[in-house]
Design goal:
Number of strands: 12
Structural class: alpha+beta
Shape: elongated
Distance between the termini: 81 Å
Number of domains: 2
CATH class of the largest domain: Mainly Beta
Number of helices: 3
Helix content: 25-40%
Mean pLDDT: 77
Order of helices and strands: HHHEEEEEEEEEEEE
CATH architecture of the largest domain: Sandwich
Largest sheet: 7 strands, antiparallel
CATH topology of the largest domain: Immunoglobulin-like
């Protein structure tokens, strides 16, 4: 058989093995084996394939096989880690946490508790509470003591009336060296359940003031 005929036979086998796959697509195990067997069957007995080239093809096949097996292992490991995350997260259900967030849920009764981390050199600090429309509901002065300091909003407006139940935006500003800077607010809430975020695959804690990421938790009580 001529060299051109051998090449044509090998090409035909490869086409049949890959079907509609693009010529630039990676070969699967079955396609790779069919191509190798076709080359062996159709090689010129007077000009057999170079052993070095055949060994190189075997090495390529081993690489393809190992890569596919590795992908399966990684996928399985990822599923196991996500399951482990959920199981570990269930131990937090029912616990009170302090989490970095700028929103808080006010009920028909009760207060909203949280904390702010006052930076060194603060001369004054103020906490503001705004509603969903951005309207100011309450302004409260904060201590200037350096470090984490607790605060409590009783749920009343600056006018002394009870604010409507709902979600509010909490912000804290500290004056340091004559310049205002926003500082992190931490809100206290109870973890009701845990879920896995379908996009980031991170553990999400479902609390009274909404879902928060585990990385936002500053303290578990």
């Amino acid at each position: 058989m001529s060299t051109s005929a051998i090449s044509a036979a090998a090409t035909s086998a490869l086409t049949g093995a890959t079907g509609a796959k693009s010529s630039t697509s990676q070969l699967g195990q079955d396609e790779f084996l069919k191509l190798m067997l076709s080359q062996m069957k159709n090689q010129d007995p007077f000009k057999p394939q170079d052993p070095g080239a055949f060994i190189a093809q075997l090495a390529q096949f081993s690489t393809v096989s190992s890569s596919q097996a590795m992908q399966k292992d990684i996928s399985s490991l990822s599923d196991s880690l996500r399951s482990s995350q959920v199981i570990d997260g269930t131990s937090l259900v029912g616990h009170n946490v302090m989490a970095a967030t700028d929103s808080a849920s006010l009920g028909a009764a009760g207060s909203v508790d949280g904390a702010v981390n006052i930076p060194d050199g603060t001369s004054s600090a103020m906490l503001t509470v705004t509603d969903a429309s951005g309207q100011l509901v309450r302004k409260m002065p904060l201590t200037t003591q350096t470090g984490l300091n607790a605060f409590s909003w009783d749920g009343n407006t600056d006018g002394g009336t009870r604010a409507a139940a709902g979600t509010y935006h909490i912000a804290a500003v500290a004056n340091v060296g004559g310049a205002n800077q926003q500082v992190e607010t931490q809100m206290a809430s109870v973890i009701n359940s845990v879920t896995i975020d379908p996009t980031s695959h991170d553990l999400t804690l479902n609390t009274d003031f909404g879902p928060i990421a585990l990385k936002s938790v500053r303290r578990v009580m």
